[in-house]
Amino acid sequence: MPHIALISSSIRTGRKSHRVVLYLKKYLEEHQLATTEIVDLKAYDFPVFHERYSRQPEPTIAMQEFREKILGADGIIIVTPEYNGGYPASLKNVVDLLYDEWHRKPVAISTVSGGAFGGTQVITSLQFTLWKMRAWTVPAMFPVPKVQDNYDEEGNATDKEATDKRADHFVQELLWCIEAKSKMEQEAVN
C-alpha cells in the first residue's frame, strides 16, 4: 500500500483549508487506498529559510524530520488556500527548502478558498514552482470552493457522496502516478 503525505499549508489562525486535509486523510483511510500522514506546517513553525536544506551546515531536527517525511512518501497531496491569488509563504518556504527531494515525486494539488472559485488562481503558480523543482504534478486537481460551507472542522463533507466522487478521481490519478513511478524505477533496476 502506498504512503501519502498530506501537506497542510496554512499556518493562519482560524484556517479552513485544514478541514480538507482531514477529509482527504479520512477518505484515503476509509477506502484503504494508502497509509497517510499529515505534515502540518503550522506545527513546524519554521523560520524563513536563508538556504536550501542541502546547503545548510546544521539543519535543525525539524528540518530533517520534514525532509524525511517528503522522502518517505510515495506521493504528496498539497492542500493550500488561496491568499490574494497566490499560495501561502509557509508553503513556498518549505518547497524551496528542498530540491532533489522533489525530483519525480508525484504531487497532487488541492486548492481551497472561501469564495466560489475554489482557489483555482493558485494552481498555475504552485504547479509551475513544483515543475521547476522537477516534481511530477498530477493532472487532476481538487479545488474546494466555499470551504466553510462544505466541510466541518473535523473534515466531514456536507455532501459526502458528491465530495467522495470528486475525491475518487483526484486520488486515483495520484495513485496511478505513484504506481507508474514504481514500475519505472523497477524497470530501471532490472
UniProtKB/TrEMBL annotation:
<dbReference type="GO" id="GO:0010181">
    <property type="term" value="F:FMN binding"/>
</dbReference>
<dbReference type="InterPro" id="IPR050712">
    <property type="entry name" value="NAD(P)H-dep_reductase"/>
</dbReference>
<dbReference type="InterPro" id="IPR029039">
    <property type="entry name" value="Flavoprotein-like_sf"/>
</dbReference>
<dbReference type="GO" id="GO:0005829">
    <property type="term" value="C:cytosol"/>
</dbReference>
<dbReference type="InterPro" id="IPR005025">
    <property type="entry name" value="FMN_Rdtase-like_dom"/>
</dbReference>
<dbReference type="Pfam" id="PF03358">
    <property type="entry name" value="FMN_red"/>
</dbReference>
<dbReference type="GO" id="GO:0016491">
    <property type="term" value="F:oxidoreductase activity"/>
</dbReference>
<feature type="domain" description="NADPH-dependent FMN reductase-like">
    <location>
        <begin position="3"/>
        <end position="146"/>
    </location>
</feature>
<protein>
    <submittedName>
        <fullName>NAD(P)H-dependent FMN reductase</fullName>
    </submittedName>
</protein>
